[in-house]
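Case study B.
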Amino acid sequence: MANMNTKHAALQALTANLLLSGDVVYWSCRGDWSLNIQDALLAATEDEVAILEARIPVEENGNDVVAPYLFPVERDEDGTIQAISQREVIRAKGPTIRTDLGKQSGLRPGPVDQAA
Amino acid sequence: MYQYDQFDNGLVSERVDQFRGQVERRTAGNVLEEEFRPHRLMNGLYLQLHAYMLRVAVPYGTLNGGQMRMLADCARKYDKGYGHFTTRQNIQFNWPRLDDVSELLKDLSEVEMHAIQTSGNCIRNITTDQYAGATPDEVEDPRITGEVLRQWSTFHPEFSFLPRKFKIAITATENDRAAMRFHDIGIEIVKNDAGDIGYAVWVGGGQGRTPVIAKKLNSFVPRQDLICYLEAVLRTYNMLGRRDNLYKARIKITVNETGVEEFTRLVDEEFAAVKQHAYEQFRLRDEEFSRVAAFFSDPAYESLAATSSTFEDAKAKDTRFAAWAATNIAPHKVPGYAIANISLKPAGGIPGDATSEQMDLVADLADRYSFSDIRVTHEQNLVLPHVKFDDLYALWQALDHIDLGTANLGLVTDMIVCPGLDYCNLANARSIPVGQMIDARFADLNRQHDIGELKVKISGCINACGHHHVGHIGILGVDKKGTEYYQITLGGSADENAAVGKIVGRAFGYDEVADAVETVVTTYVNGRDSKEETFLSYVGRVGLGPFKEALYGSE
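Model:
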């Protein structure tokens, strides 16, 4: 999968909400769901996007997450992954008018503990 | 207020148990999301951007102190310490976990509350005038009809899968405080020349992407025929309503495509058939109406003088209280009492949000000063409907202490604002921070009072949950290639002079909206004949021209 250090607008990541908590999660390079967008596995080529897309029906038939879909992201020059649309920026952080809520209030890095 | 009987209690607690089982099967992996989703939606549970959102029904916007306390407790226990009061007189919790919702619903059932039919293509929570039972000018308390229709529409088997959601509002005064003409069915309680009370029935109103003012289908439906008539309207819609196109499925489109005359003829035909074949089943009997009405009988008012020196003295010595009294209290039908409005629009706040502590305090104050009676308004405020003038100052001081004493009811900062892109899965643009920018711009309360009545309503998408079509100043957030823009409409009104606002011109960027609203307001203030000429009257007199000129110049 892509490991790009330069800004690239055509990258795709896979996101969903956890079934139990509803938390926003990202399909990670480790092959599991992460709460942190920085862990997201990025697809750059058509083949990579197709592989990520193939994950969607698998997840839809499981009971870990709800409503998986692909969305465009970009990488800053320092390697930071950024959502492009305002909607995904807000999902990745939390409500802009309540910065004490959502991920921005204390991002838990790493894989998801399903019991949490 | 209405109290559950054995049937209501059984119905709601059974539903909680059913939902618990559905959640257990879903989390165990025995049912897929596709199968589970309709069940969670039928129980008011949505998935939003950050988390689940549970919408709890507040029937006809009436709560008692115990119920408000339970909402506060649920917000603390299962959410993040606050709730959001909505334009359907409901409350939403923004962060519950799926595996907590069954317990939350169980707690709510203990105070006779639920989330049934707060989502889905069914008859939603029926709304009414927040001043019901207290205002001097009503034909009768519309909550009685509201409760009758709640019982009729709850789990109505024929209307559980309508072409689209269906919203009913009831008013009983000439002054429409319930946006009745913008509902799928608007019911106006009227008295005919013979002195009989009945119902004018308006059909096909709504907002969304196609705003329509409802048409009056029948000027006087006798009381005993109301349910028969509504059965006829719903059946006609259920037969004709489009199921092939989500955007053309509301009854307003059905009425438009069928033609008002033909739709009325079909309803009348069905009405006659219902009366012929099922009158005994659907006739609203006097004894049943009286049984329900007994739950809404007047509280034990004291005999008081119409004026209060305590109240007058407090106004004289405390200008902030005087400002609150000027905007936030309304006349009551009983001498010595007032209707007290609690603004949920404090400076810098989020319209409609209330913390658990605020909800607890409102519950305590309702118990102490208003016979434990609380109302939720469709404009996202709260009301204590029966407060003695003698108690108003003490009430306001307690409210002010916890940021609920803002003197802005009906003024520019008393905005309806949908959750927008900060929470909502459907939104295209943020609403709340736009509202906050406007709020900050008009922070000077004296200026707000000088401007006078002005209703600003903001929606984050064309679904119009923020009622922008009927804002005196309406603001609609749109997405243009990933950037938020805001379209401004002027001249809308949700009251008895129902009107849909007109688009003033090209949309404004996120950072330009507050300036644009200020320009609109300044144009009005500089152009009005006198302070008696309201914003709406001014727009009606001069049209959009002066606003276009001020906003866009020679562009």
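DSSP finds two helices and five strands in chain A. The remaining cases will be described in the next quarterly update.
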